[in-house]
Amino acid sequence: MLNMVELFSLLGFPARVGGRALLASRYISSGFTTVRVTSEYAEQRFGRSVRWRPWLMIDVQELEEIEELINKGSDAQLESWRVSQLSVCGMIAIIGALVAQAGLTALQLPSLEDVHYIARGAFIMSIILSLMAVFFSGLQQSSFGRASDPREQRLWLSSSVRWNEAKMKAELRSSIVAHMILQAPFEIVVMSITLFVVGFGVYLGSSWKAGLKLNEGDQGNRAVLIAYIIPTAFTLLMYGHMMGLKDRELRKTGEVDIVQEMSADLKLEGSPANFVYVGGQRESKRFDSMPNTEDMNVRFDGLRMALKEAAEAHRRSAKADEEVARQYERLLEVR
């Protein structure tokens, strides 16, 4: 079954790469740090030939993260990840519906039948893919959303049990099938948005080249095309470049590892403030952060007073109980 899954991944690889064309500046700015496959995990799972199978490069890092989550993550972390995944899935369904509506409106553009057929074809594919994204989002909600128990979630995200030679223990292996199911709505809606942007660009460019009368003025079509190109290119370059720089920062500083260490320290020590990072190295400040002797004495004095008041209250309560018992005895004597 894995071979068939990899075959589907191979066939869909060009479309997945094309769907990410709008964020090409991100991968250029990051130095393609988010799509590397020559990692130790990739070679252990897919063999050394993984470097010659580029269709796996999009999934390797996320497969490793899922495997880390289901084997080392707590139940709370797993549930938080599940809620986040379902929330994103719901947002994708909304985006897909909006893109489908935009595609239907685009089919009513003036003189669409007179421009290059690529424009109409791109709009139609955008509509179909956006509807598929909505459909797959609903399927994801009904499949992964039903796995409410942490054990069921781990089993749903895993494919089998493997033996870890380095750690000498059995671990769950992340499922590439589950990963593709979870990623399908995102991948499809990204393709849909890319096709809509491309189709609209082809429409404006073809209208200008064919000299169609869409706007008043001698150069109206060219002006509208320029108005389309400038904001589109600027926003994609700016946001893609910023995301690429952030990818570089995360890879350079190892922020993810630091956050994980701080989380572990929080469980062990009770407060992340017990450690400080100097020059990228973690140093303990446990004893520096301890309260001084004067503060501790004040706290102990308060505790002593509270204990004395509690003891006195118990004594008064005991006296009151004794008085009640005496009154009961007097009533018996009267009778």
From TrEMBL:
Q: Which UniProt keywords apply?
A: Membrane, Transmembrane, Transmembrane helix
Q: Which domain of life is it from?
A: Eukaryota
Q: Which residues cross the membrane?
A: 86-109, 115-136, 176-203, 223-242
Q: What is this protein's name?
A: Uncharacterized protein
